[in-house]
Amino acid sequence: xxxxxxxxxxxxxxxxNEVTVTKAGxxxxxxxxxxxxxxxx
Length: 41
Known about the structure:
The protein is an all-beta fold.
């Protein structure tokens, strides 16, 4: 999933790491070699 906006939150389904986007660059967040899932707000 492409990061679109600052403030979006993502979680790794493997290890549970969570990330809050501070500056959106349009790339994809990856953790444990898998795309991270966006957490609904």
